């Protein structure tokens, strides 16, 4: 892939040569989308901040091995997804510990809401905190591959081909995951938007 076709890859190649300013530029561009993706995956703000920092740490540590064979964003979100899956596996091995951590961290803090650019709703509804929480809960309830595909689909930087590379599956399988995820969300949200009631 030519370097000029992906300015972020060009920046990463500068990082590989020891350019710290280039690394700071990449962090500045991707820290918020990366945090949003991780937070929607793990649903734990404090842990997501730590994990996002860990992603950038992995990027910097791996700079000498970086090869420009795919877009930088594809490589970055692949690292993020793998670290998220590791954390989900850790939680499944230590569920009680994760629940206690969650309660301790969230007792005094309201859940932060994140802007959703892909589900377009009337302005008065979109501003309604309860609806935003229901959307987040519906996404969290999707099976892991569907949830990750939907969350990656929200990243403007990523094409279907790049999402397929991150998920390590075919393009047709990726499109199917996204389609099924969207259909499930539509069904979940339809009764609530219609009546104001939410049925699990």
**Annotated CATH architecture of the largest domain:** Orthogonal Bundle
Order of helices and strands: HHHHHHHHHH
Residue-averaged pLDDT: 81
- The amount of beta strand, in percent, is under 5%
Roughly how many Å apart are the termini? 46 Å
| Tally of helical runs | 10
Low-confidence stretches: 98-127
CATH superfamily of the largest domain, please?
Answer: RNA polymerase sigma factor, region 2, helix turn helix motif
- CATH fold call of the largest domain: Rna Polymerase Sigma Factor, Chain: A
Give a short synopsis of this structure:
The chain is an all-alpha fold. The chain is built from ten helices and no strands.
Please name the defining characteristics of this protein.
200 residues; 0% strand; 2 domains; Arc Repressor Mutant, subunit A; mainly alpha; Rna Polymerase Sigma Factor, Chain: A
């Amino acid at each position: 892939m030519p370097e000029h076709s992906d300015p972020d890859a060009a920046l990463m190649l500068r990082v590989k040569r020891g350019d710290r300013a280039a690394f700071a530029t990449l962090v500045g561009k991707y820290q918020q989308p990366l945090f949003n993706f991780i937070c929607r995956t793990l649903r734990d703000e404090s842990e997501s901040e730590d994990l996002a920092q860990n992603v950038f740490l992995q990027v910097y540590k791996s700079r000498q091995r970086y090869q420009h064979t795919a877009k930088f964003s594809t490589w970055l979100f692949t690292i993020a997804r793998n670290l998220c899956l590791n954390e989900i596996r850790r939680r499944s091995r230590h569920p009680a510990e994760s629940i206690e951590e969650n309660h301790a961290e969230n007792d005094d803090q309201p859940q932060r809401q994140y802007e959703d650019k892909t589900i377009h709703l009337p302005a008065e509804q979109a501003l309604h905190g309860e609806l935003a929480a229901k959307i987040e809960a519906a996404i969290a309830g999707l099976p892991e591959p569907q949830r990750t595909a939907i969350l990656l689909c929200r990243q403007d930087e990523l094409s279907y081909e790049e999402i397929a590379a991150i998920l390590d599956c075919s393009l047709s399988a990726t499109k199917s995951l996204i389609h099924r995820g969207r259909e499930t969300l539509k069904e979940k949200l339809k009764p609530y938007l219609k009546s104001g009631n939410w049925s699990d």
